[in-house]
Amino acid sequence: MTISLWPLVGGVLIGASALLLMLFIGRIAGVSGIIWGAFTANDANRLWRWLFVGGIVAGAFLFHAISGNAYPLVNDNIALAAVAGLLVGIGVKLGSGCTSGHGVCGISRLSTRSIIATVVFMLVGIITVTLFRML
Which residue from 8, 38, 65, 124 could staple onto 49, CB 3.0 to 4.6 Å apart? Predict the structure, then answer.
């Protein structure tokens, strides 16, 4: 059995990016808020948001190029993907944030609200996967 260090590397990079964003510009690395602000923020706040999002996309391609791991398969069921995306968007709005904002940044700040939100969306994710596998 071989142990891959890629998850550890990824976790360190996610934590480092969240820390650097907080240190340099005082912002929480909540990706859903960053993406929303890339479209709605004033001009001074758009550049760093687009660079952050671009770094996420470039990082995924860079990982696959460096590691030699295959690119993940994309679900070709457009209707299912659209419904899933809509449900995730509703969950982000109801929970006032996403996994990066609550799960990474909120828990590290010991935010009770973020801890509760993370527990709730993890449970819903586990239940959803279990139900879909049973069907």
Answer: 38
The structure's pTM equals 0.76
Each residue's pLDDT expressed in tens, for the chain with a length of 135 residues: 467 888 888 889 989 999 999 999 998 888 888 988 899 888 878 999 999 999 999 988 898 888 887 777 777 788 888 888 888 888 888 888 888 888 888 888 899 999 999 999 899 889 989 998 998
DSSP 8-class letter at 4 = P
Report the Cα–Cα distance between both ends of the chain, in Å, rounded.
32
- Cβ-Cβ contacts under 8 Å for 81 (sequence gap 6 or more): 75
99 contacts: CB under 8 Å, gap ≥ 6: 118, 121
Place of tokens 């929303």: 36
Return the ∠ at Cα 47 (arms to 45 and 53), rounded to 5°.
105
